[in-house]
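Illustration: Membrane protein insertase YidC.
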Amino acid sequence: MNDQNKNLILATALSFAVILVWFLLFPPEEPPIAPETDVIETTEGELAAPPPGGVGDTATPAGEAPAPAQEIARLPIDTPRVEGSISLLGGRIDTLRLKDYRETLDDDSPTVPLLSPVGGNGAYYALYGWTPAGNLGFDDVPGANTEWSVESGETLSPGNPITLSWDNGNGAIFRRTLSIDEDYLFTVTQSVENTTDAALRLAPYGIVARHGEPDTAGFFILHEGVVRQSDNSLEELGYSDLPDLDFVEREAARAEVIDVAENGWIGFTDKYWMTTLIPQPGQSFQSVAKYVQNAEIYQVESRLPAITVEAGATGEVSTMLFAGAKEWETIRDYEENLGIRNFVDSIDWGWFFFLTKPIFRALHFLNGVIGNMGWSILALTLLIKAILFPLAYKSYVSMAKMKELQPEMEKLKERAGDDRQKMQQGMMELYKKNKVNPASGCLPILLQIPIFFSLYKVIFVTIELRHAAWFGPFRDLSAPDPTSIYNLFGAFPWAAPDPGTTLALIFIGILPLLLGISMWLQQKLNPAPTDPAQQMIFAWMPWVFMFMLGGFASGLVVYWIANNTITFTQQYIIMRSHGHKPDVFGNIKKSFGRKKTAEAAAGKGKPKK
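Result:
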């Protein structure tokens, strides 16, 4: 076996092995209040005692249940992009739906829910409050079950804030003003008016809590759980990581607390949605990830330093809450305009972020120009192939020169006989004399692997690809090909097999079929290798890949088909420019002829004369 064939088989095997492993790994698949802690005396700017260990439905006195959700007074939230409500019990932001997104492609599908109140399955909400310090007790500050009154406002909408108030009866009047922009950003201003004749000390906090572990995609490629920026450090914690955190006795929970000096945020991220607490840039705070074990509640907190409110004065603190879709452009604008550090990294760009970020930005730009994500993927393929063309050109030229050297290599093989060392030395001299690098043919193939993975990541995790249509039946490029051989691509009235089933992998769609054909035609640019083992590998490879990628996102398969087609065209033109005329149809005929010969040799048939 000569070096050219060895290199080709090595590159093929490497590509096949990496994608096979990828396919196997990523198949197309409120806590009780903590025992009261002693009040911690603090100096100005120092963090006070933590907020209560839990803020959920069990945070009521023993034996007392929270009021049913339907009996709790609410204020509506209505903006161009979200709708929901705020509960006056605790002042929680606990009902929110995203108007621009539906659960499925059906026209009558409900909009996507993000937050949900206590009392139902999967309660998920944001709550704000104060931790007492100095001579204040927990009864003197508003908590999870405080009944707030409406001071001003009726419906929370852009330009129309609402203000809630609560008088503790001991000379402190608490107010909470909530406002929202046109997208997904709430601003929460907490204030306390001190009508007593003594200074008050207390510390504001914000909490986002999830009751029970939510349903997740469960893919290794995707992070779902806690994500936070702490000054210059980005950290991701999965839901399974939180129960393994160190137990903090005064928290009565497992928790990880990080001191943030001036810029950060913390929240829960799903595949496409996120709820994040964001203190004002420049504000120090403690970033807390917490798990309350006996109630199975996952919780994140932002704890701000204690403030002193002098007698007759009013103190206030303003923070932000992002609750919505992880749209790159929206999040980027918040990062740039509000100074929220690395907020765009709340999108899971992965290990290949240096590729996924520019690939996404290019795809996002092309989609803005073209207005169709499918055609944008094809345009992106052309762009990537243009960038890689100098390397591809050298590769194809090297392969053409290798073919020109084939007769001399055969003579060298005859002269060397079984002397492998002599054969290797002769081939190296031949390569050096003719300035041929046999490894250069593998480079474009190896470069395609991280690009392929990065594009798969972009298609899988970015919301811009969710439900992105191309044409006809291709209404969601982030989902597998919806067509199927089973119903002759929609010609028959019965439905295609459900995605993820064995039948769906067998009865593949039109895109995987075109992928297999494009790989097969690309092989036919060159005669098949003479070695039977190599022939078998090359013969099966397009069809194995075809079935392997049948369950991948259709947008990724579109990219691969386009990439194969452009590669075929480039290689054909370059080979002809160097005097080699690929006989594609002749190679196809020969491959069928060899098959018949093999069948005849096995006693299964006779070759035609």
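Reading the tokens back as a structure: Residues 554-577 form the longest helix (24 residues).
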